Amino acid sequence: QVQLVESGGGLVQAGGSLRLSCAASGSIRSIDVMDWGWYRQAPGKQRELVALIKETGTTNYADSVKGRFAISGDNAKNAVYLQMNNLKPEDTAVYYCALGYSYWGQGTQVTVSS
């Protein structure tokens, strides 16, 4: 079993910043593909990929967050981070981290006020 725990969400004004963290524990060595992802789901919408960092270090971003969000990982700590700058009200959602496309955190709420 692998457990993921996110932290760092909260309420921020438009234009502000937040940094999300996600730490993994448990049987991490059992995971074949150590790709990390941040996803989000707004009310009434489908969950969408926000940012991805592959075990090779390659990153991908949704067009809506390019230039504002940055994903990074710390292999020694089995953790991934999402730095979110210049936040907009449309970034409001529950943010989830994922590992290996199979394991998910419980989500952390991000609310951006206008």
Task: Note down, in words, how this protein is organized.
With 114 residues, the chain is mainly beta. The chain contains no helices and 11 strands. The protein has strands spanning 2-7, 10-13, 18-26, 36-41, 48-53, 59-61, 69-74, 79-84, 93-99, 103-104, 108-113. The strands form 2 sheets. Strands 2, 4, 5, 6, 9, 10 and 11 form a 7-stranded mixed sheet that branches. Strands 1-3-8-7 form a 4-stranded antiparallel sheet, with no helix packed on it. Strand 4 and strand 5 (48-53) form a beta hairpin. The relative contact order is 0.33. The model has no long low-confidence stretch (mean pLDDT 95).
Short description:
The protein has strands spanning 2-7, 10-13, 18-26, 36-41, 48-53, 59-61, 69-74, 79-84, 93-99, 103-104, 108-113. By secondary structure, it is mainly β. It starts with a strand and ends with a strand.
Kindly provide the radius of gyration, computed on alpha-carbon positions and rounded to a whole number of angstroms: 13 Å
State the end-to-end distance: 40 Å
Outline: globular
* Count of helical stretches: 0
Total strand count, please?
A: 11
Summarize model confidence as the mean pLDDT.
95
Poorly predicted regions: none
Report the sheet with the most strands, covering strand number, pairing sense and barrel closure.
Answer: 7 strands, mixed
Please indicate the percent range of residues in DSSP E strands (runs of 2 or more): over 45%
Helix content: under 10%
The run of helices and strands is EEEEEEEEEEE
Question: Would you tell me the structural class of the helices and strands?
Answer: mainly beta
